Sequence to fold (488 residues):
Amino acid sequence: MEVSAKSINPLVLLQALILGILFIFVSHTLWVLAMELFLLLLTHYVLRVHITRGEGIGLVVGPVLWTALAYVNHQHGTALSAPQDGLRFLAALWLSILIIHMTSPSMMMHHLERRFKQWFGRRTIIGQVALMALLVMRYLPQLWITAKRVNADVRMRLQLVGGSGRWKDKIRFLTPLIMISIMHSDRIAEAIWARGWRPGQMPVVAPWTKRDTVITVTLWTIFLISWKALI
Amino acid sequence: MAILIENMVLPHSQLRIPRWSAPRQGLYGIVGPNGSGKSQFFSVLMRTLKPRLGKVSIENCRIGCVMQHPEHQLTEATVRDEMLWPFSRKQQVDHRFQNQLADVIQRWDLEVHWQQSPWTLSTGQKRRLILAVYDLLNPDVLLLDEPSEGLDGEWKKRLATWLTTRAGTRLTLITSHDWPWLLSFVGTGFWCEKTLDASPKDLGQLWYSHQLPTVNPLEQLWRELLNRNAPVSWRGWIDAEVALGQVVTLWKSVQNQ
Fold:
């Protein structure tokens, strides 16, 4: 995280990220895109952001691949629109990298959690979101594999005794799934807990300053005016 | 009983099985490095994995498997129910069955856990329970995936003894990275790395010819002796006393020269 932008509230930066990406992807005029890239370059040097080698490679390889895909897919009619698409992707990527260097995503989550808890009470918002993500990405595929293994065992045992099975055998796989789920959720909860998160506690975050209000208002004003005027 | 696999390529591990025909009976190791496709090979035999490439034919064959994770085989609330659920009430009251059950319970020392939930058992106890289940079910082909994991030295010995006594009546295929344990009672095995061997080879020779990473100093010493063509057996290192005897003999022969 760079020192120069440390005091800007992460929620302001989150808004800047969302609005910026939105703006970059809907700006089809070439000079607007050129201006965006110039502003990004300026921000980069003013804030003295030091990108890592991996990020640098990503900034080159990502847009090149994006350009190639855009060209191959022939979505744009002319050959020039493919590099323009690639440049838009470069701008979105660059903006994301700059913002992530100014504040960490976990800080954004903390601030967001605090805001949500102020509105909805001290409920487990981040925990719920994290568990939902884990459920979809890791947990359900794992359960599918486990269910297949349990069913294989049930089938083998029934074959070995020469039985055809009862209705209960069809749902036998649920027991290990539930038990393994409990054991896994325990580990997930432990991992989140070990990182300092507590469901009933308000995260301690830096206070919102007048400067944050000014930046947010400016950001939205620029976004709405330019949206109306240019897009 | 006949199992034949031809021209198969397994997904993920990309293990090729040009032709593999199951031996009729005996104890065989399925050995190879991590991720080489040993467990996937078992999945093919259990018919839970059906690769797009290749053909598998399994005829008149009752297969049982003790999986690597015993949790995938526990579906009941007590050890008793876990053992008995596949059997009908009529089978359960049969005298012969009851004698068999008593033998199995005694062999795997499950009496103290009889009314306990399988989920409260330790990993080794869970594995013993699943081994007991398949001991009672008595399949023609028994697949054991890392069966020594979680078992203490005494139970590893007992498992090896049980498997040896049943070697003449069934085919048992064992995957394990526990080389000293496997070498102590299994004679031959199939090497599984990129391609699954079509015919079994001496397990000691397989251990020596595939330079696997070693952590046991005695195992390292033995490799060194074999590399220098010393007249020692491939399996000498698994038993400290045997190793000592062979080294002393070797030392005496060197002295005499």
Notes: Residues 240-256 of chain B form the longest helix (17 residues). The mean pLDDT of chain B is 92.
